[in-house]
Amino acid sequence: MFVVRVADNFHYMDDEESHAHGEYSTWPEAVAAARQIVDRSLEHEFRPGMGAAELYDQYVSFGDDPYITPVPPGDLFSAWEYAKERCAALCAARDSGSKADNG
Fold first, then answer.
1. Best exposed site among 8, 20, 42, 64 by fewest CB in 10 Å?
2. Rounded to an integer, what distance in angstroms lies between the CA atom of residue 102 and that of residue 99?
3. What does the mean pLDDT of the chain come to?
4. Is the dihedral of CA 13, 86, 3, 69 positive or negative?
5. Model-level pTM?
6. How do residues 82-98 score in pLDDT, each as one tens digit?
7. Is 35 exposed, middle or buried (0-12, 13-18, 19+ CB in 10 A)?
8. Sequence-distant (≥ 6) Cβ neighbours of residue 30 within 8 angstroms
9. Residue ranges covered by each domain of the chain
10. Residue 79 above 70 pLDDT?
11. Separation CA 33–CA 48 (nearest Å)
12. pLDDT tens-digit profile of 7-54?
């Protein structure tokens, strides 16, 4: 059983500011849930015209930071690393969409 917990980046390392999100029978299910949490947080933090670096900074300052316990040997999920990848993709998609709308 894998437990996804959600910490608050605004209250980094404050265990009282984290909560259980859910329990999952497999590691891939837990990772998918954690990724959804990051995606929702990025959507919430995104503002038109934001670049990837600005969105990432906003996320690591104020976003939801899911983590999974226990971590199986050889596996790893980093919400911050996933967020960095998603920020680039999200901002690129939004930027190309706004250029298409204006072009």
1. 20
2. 5
3. 86
4. negative
5. 0.82
6. 999 999 988 887 665 55
7. middle
8. 2, 3, 4, 24, 68, 77
9. 2-102
10. yes
11. 26
12. 877 756 556 667 788 999 999 999 999 999 999 999 999 988 889 999
**What single letter denotes the amino acid at residue 54?**
E
Instruction: Give CA–CA dist 86/93, Å, rounded.
Output: 10
Q: Are strands 2-8 and 19-24 parallel, antiparallel or unpaired?
A: antiparallel
Single-letter residue type at 13:
M
65 near 5, Cβ under 8 Å? no
What per-residue confidence (pLDDT) applies to 6?
92
